[in-house]
Amino acid sequence: MDLLEIQKKINNGHIKWRNHATRRLLERQLKRSNVLQSIVNGEIIEEYQKDSPFASCLILGYDENKMPIHTVCSIGEGFLWIITVYRPDPSKWESDFKTRKG
């Protein structure tokens, strides 16, 4: 996946939030604006080419308080699809939040 294309979709407002992502935002007390900021300033750390209906990726970014956010998203049908959003668990991720433990 191409981070520039993802950022372009955000800048053009071509974003769709999956119901799962919306629920996770509420559960995890995250704001859409912080998630989008973390994507724009983030980096792709994993790619899932076999995901369906569209290939997806995991993006690591940081919010305004420099707290890490992981976002799984994909591009399809002219939109950036936000699939899920979460704060990476330090027990599952190395201190760089890019590398899975174990």
Helical proportion, percent range = 25-40%
Largest sheet: 5 strands, mixed
Q: What percent strand?
A: 25-35%
Order of helix and strand elements from N to C terminus: HEHHEEEE
Write the layout of secondary structure elements.
Layout: H1 3-11, E1 15-17, H2 19-27, H3 32-40, E2 43-48, E3 56-62, E4 68-76, E5 79-86
At a glance:
With 102 residues, the protein is an alpha+beta fold. It contains 3 helices and 5 strands; from the N terminus they run H-E-H-H-E-E-E-E.
Describe the protein's architecture and organization.
The structure is a single chain. By secondary structure, the protein is an alpha+beta fold. The chain has one domain. It is built from three helices and five strands; from the N terminus they run αβααββββ. The protein has helices at residues 3-11, 19-27, 32-40, and strands spanning 15-17, 43-48, 56-62, 68-76, 79-86. Strands 1-5-4-3-2 form a five-stranded mixed beta sheet. The longest helix is centred in the first third of the chain and has 9 residues, at 3-11. The protein is globular.
Please give a handful of descriptors for the protein shown.
32% strand, alpha+beta, 3 helices, 102 residues, single chain, five-stranded mixed sheet
